[in-house]
Amino acid sequence: MPKTDSKAPKPSPAPVRKLAPVSGVKVTILVDNYIDVFLRAKWPVSRVGMKASKPLQAEHGLSVLVEVSRAGQKKTVLLDTGYSPGPLLHNMAVLGYNPQQIDRIFLSHGHPDHYGGLVGLLEQRKSPVYLVTHPDAFCPRYVVLPDGDVSGPFFLDRSAVEKAGAVVLLSRNETMVCPGAMATGEIKQAASPEWPGAGSRKIIKEGVTRDDEFLDDQALVMNLEGKGLVVIGGCMHAGIINTLNHIREVAGVDRVYAVIGGFHLTGAPDENIGEALKNLKKINPALLVGGHCTGFAALTEMARVFPDQFQLSCSGTIIDMM
């Protein structure tokens, strides 16, 4: 086990009754499925685009750098690490970041397009770092596709992660990843989920194969002072509306200001997309930055339904909120 700084505060597993406000949140999309250097942006979103010293890279994966300002201090949380270390480390360097600047790593869930770059990133650091995630993130998984083919099994090797320098902190409940930034804990799927996804998804727990309920799929949440909740999701497998309702309850804050990340509507039928966006309209976030597993059909419909609020998430997208 790597040595840690005994003075460094550990994330608290205590329940959060009301999420304390923060003065600023800066979100940098390090890796996403998309790149478009000509894509226009409206404040508070900006894009590196053609100003980058080298071309950025994209892949089917997600990695987001979150800088949280509170009480005159700033903490940097890395949410997920993409599908492979190459694009992650390349884009970090192009965007002016390095692995040593990361104060905490938060793994939203145990799928390879979210943990694939983790060990490579850890190996570039000079000191240990806390990794906050759910116990199921390390369970083997596989998918039986509609045509009968099997994808997997795949799993994140905890021993390799710890050997590379992570100090693993596990929690099933809402947890403070750093001051002002909360992991949601388990989000139970509703009786009628918006879109369960194609194929039969399985997880192996304690040697027993079960249907995968994606209990490890969490979001990172901040309460931006005077504006409301900033929600960053890896995939939101439990459904975007179900996820946001859970977050508002555990954070003790009703207003949702921004929703960023993957909304897991890819491949969903039109009626599922329409129902999700109809309910999202009732919540009415001021800003929607969607990408990764949201899916082309859902992204285009979201752009139509939310013409003033929606923007596409690309590698190099920056959202600066204060």
Written account of the structure:
By secondary structure, the chain is α/β, with parallel strands linked by helices. It has one domain: Metallo-beta-lactamase, Chain A, CATH 3.60.15. The chain contains 7 helices and 20 strands. The strands form 3 sheets. Strands 1, 11, 12, 15, 16, 17, 18 and 19 form an 8-stranded mixed sheet that branches. The chain has an 8-stranded mixed sheet with strand order 3-20-2-4-5-6-7-10. Helix 6 packs across helix 7. The longest helix has 14 residues. The N terminus is likely disordered.
Keywords for this entry:
20 strands, 8-stranded mixed β-sheet, 7 helices, 322 residues, alpha/beta, disordered N terminus, Metallo-beta-lactamase, Chain A
Task: Provide the fold topology.
Blueprint: E1 21-22, E2 24-31, E3 45-47, E4 63-70, E5 73-79, H1 85-94, E6 104-106, H2 112-115, H3 118-122, E7 129-133, E8 141-144, E9 150-154, H4 158-163, E10 166-170, E11 175-178, E12 181-183, E13 200-205, E14 208-211, E15 219-224, E16 228-233, H5 240-251, E17 256-262, H6 270-283, E18 287-291, H7 296-305, E19 310-312, E20 317-321
Could you write a compact summary of the structure shown?
The chain is α/β, with parallel strands linked by helices.
| Biggest sheet descriptor | 8 strands, mixed
Whole-number tally of structural domains: 1
Kindly identify the CATH topology.
Answer: Metallo-beta-lactamase, Chain A
> Would you state the CATH class?
Alpha Beta
What's the count of strands? 20
* Global shape: globular
Integer-rounded radius of gyration: 18 Å
Low-confidence spans = 1-8
